[in-house]
Design brief:
123 residues; mainly alpha; two-stranded antiparallel ribbon; 4 helices; 52% helix; 5% strand; binds zinc ion
Length: 123
Amino acid sequence: MTDEEREARLRERLQTIRARSAKASSWRSSTQSLTRLVNRDGYVAVKARLSREDIAFISGARDEVLAFADLALRLLDLHRPQEAGGITSDPDRPLRRCRACMARWPCPTVRTMAEFDCGAPGS
Ligand SMILES: [Zn+2]
């Protein structure tokens, strides 16, 4: 498989996951009220009305979230800062570059990932 084919396949997989996730219902408001119903054994008996899209989403959600988290962690492991060397105007803040893409630190990949916080609690 060529790099282009690999990238096209990844892009397609990500678009499929995004489309499936967008079609499914959000559980955020339901889970807030469900939390209050947790019984002594730590469970809630759920009666839910699920669409075909919801079922498709739920069936893959765990594996896809794990795969996404794994991908993100691997990207962060790859894109790390390193001293760029050379002379800078501020000796206390040496010029740093990403060791993967050689862009000035923080590189565009890490900046983009840092913007991602839609899954954070409270957001
Ligand atoms: Zn980078």
